[in-house]
Here is the input.
Amino acid sequence: MFQFRKSVAALAVAASVAGLSAAMPVGVQAQTLKAVMHSDVKILDPIWTTAYIQRNFGYMVWDTLFAMDEKFAVKPQMVDKYEVSSDKLTWTFTLRDGLEWSNGTPVIAEDCIASIKRWAARDSMGQKMMGSVAGFEAVDAKTFKMKMKEPYGLVLESLGKPSSNVPFMMPKKTAETDPATQIKVEDVIGSGPFVFVASEWKPGEKVVFTKNAKYKPRAEPASGLAGGKVVNVARVEWIAMPDVQTQVAAIQNGEIDMIEAPGHDLLPLLGKDKNIKLFDSNPLGNQYVMRFNQLSKPFDNAKIRHAVMVAFGQEDFLKATIGDSKYYKTCKPVFICGTPLASEDGMKDVLNQNAAKAKELLKEAGYDGTPIVLLQSTDLQVLTNLAPVAKQQLEAAGFKVDLQSSDWQTVVARRVKKDPPAQGGWHAMLTSWVAADILNPVMAGFFNSSCDKAMFGWPCDETIEKMRDQFSKETDPAKQKQIALDLQKYWVDHPTHVNLGQWYSPVAMRTNVDGMLTAPVPVFWNITKK
Amino acid sequence: MLDFIARRLVAIIPVLAVVAVLVFLMLRLTPGDPAAVIAGDNATSDQIADIREKLGLNLPIWQQFGIWIGNMLQGNFGESFFFKKTVAELIAQRVEPTLALALCTLIFAVAISVPIGVAAAYKQGSAFDRSVMAFSVLGFSMPTFVIGYCLIYVFAIELGWLPVQGYVRIAVNFGQFFERMILPSITLSVGFIALIARITRASVLEVLNEDYIRTARAKGLSNRVVLMRHALRNAAVPIMTVIGLGIAILIGGAVVTESVYGLPGLGRLTVEAVLSRDFPTIQTVILLFSVVYVVINLLIDISYTLFDPRIRY
Here is the structure.
């Protein structure tokens, strides 16, 4: 036995020594940050899809005209200066000096115009803005104008939108790709802080980025997604590692430096390791949500949807999914707690888990006992336990519930079906939003109540749409806030969804890694590795 | 013999045709919409419909099938819905880790299981025999991922001898390739060793009671010669059959092992493709596995003639 152990050890040492002669020099290895992200990168076009991993990929390679800092203020990023005419109908943007694409060609105004158009064709906030845009004009290589048909209050918020779809600036040739078609691998050329190394991209294995030597960071210190994007490592590798247990073992063993989203049940194990630290890079976190399908009875009835809000209490949902109260927070306001529009106005009588009151409301609303087809996804740990809690609280209020379980991708496919629930459709499903996606009623997709054009669930409510429109066209922030509050009060009685609390997912990293920024998206500039 | 091989190769065609139809229909009948997966969580119904049209998923099923089969016959396996790469490219990138894992496992498993199976038969009823049988039950019963996690904990985390995960291509660095293959191969071979050892023991035991073994012993041949030349050779046909059938277990086990050890092989590609409903990739990978399975069993059939001269095709 001893002989065998000696042999294995010798073999391993020999292999390790041989391993040191790997193609990558030792210096580069030390300057390489290896991270496991929440998903593998399969698609390279962050405009074509809204998936978060593509958004994160986009922040590595491309830059934005504006960006949101850690205090939710939108700051110029590629833009040097901007001005708006006194009638608020002409916006003039001037790019910073010396901006270049990673292939060495300069970034020009025409690139930005084409990029805004492509983004706006895909993004709901962009579409809303373009409804008020009369046209664009390139004044010179660095300056362009955006002319409006009417004053629009969310120009900066739209161009500095932090999450999917982010208006990334791309070269004109790339940005002229049909918005419904993915850009090509060879077109992944950005002016962002990193360069995507296409030759080393192995789907299912790793994505490699190197520092963009041509990138010119802003002079201001980095803050959130804004400020100087100073890159302190030579290379970043996103390693595809689907098994969470293996991720933990790999970071404990020093084979990787960072895990973007370690499972909550594994956090105590990581927290005990003196070589690993947990860092909450996104203090806004995420929000759990139950979405109604308003095409079918009984949720076509606003009073019954309101009864659900009365029946629900957030704490049980959060305990069942996240567990440790360090990583969750009950939050009644529908706009994320801690952000400018958050308010408890109108929320006093809901989300108190008041089953008796909900029963009364159901009786008044004439609920006929139709079983609620509630979709449960069973393969995403952060979502699995939501549906059983929802079932329990709904049943306590007098609903009949038909819980139907499947994997998440089946839920994703099923939730876009408009068929009646008995024929493969659905009544309600549970999901989670990244807070950065739901900071205002125009950005938050679940408020879109434009019937067929709305997201799955297809709410159809003229009042909500009118208020969203007012919000987008209002240029005074105080008045915008008032509209958001009025909308929340109206929404409580006519809910499109129910907010079920906020939760947080810290990043796990080795203690020799430092400088990660607090931002709604995990970004890799400013990070150092000793 | 050549006739037999030609007939068997021709017989692959209907097998593949049945597999192709079944895989295609099963994927279309199971719930899931690749367009919705690609579009992401914030997508509108219009965006999803756009993507569905681009991928040709709004065509009638028979038309989709016709296009796929037509392309396959021309050697075009299609393009992955997710990666802007052809399925052939994806498979080419992923085949090396799986092939390396399968070969290492096969070599390791056969090298361990056959000798211990023979020894257990020879020492029937002894403590060694009982230990082999106990290991066999345990090895066959333990899920692959549990074995993987246990080995990672002991050899990577506690002892620090081997890396937890990852794959380095042979051409890049043989040393790193080798150290990253040790734990996955052991993990995957445990069940295989248990199966082969048990069958080897049973086959050899049966042969050991034959008259010609008694005759060989009566001639004064040593135990080693009796066991290796007479007993094992005559017991080889069922052992080879089990090794052939075990390839299916190996393919199934590779899916789990590749996930546990972060090996970017065909097993993981299959899981990723299934989870994201990447139809062209799933269809091609399953067809590939079917071809591999059929060809390996053909090779096993041919190998029978080496061990038993009475078998002729």
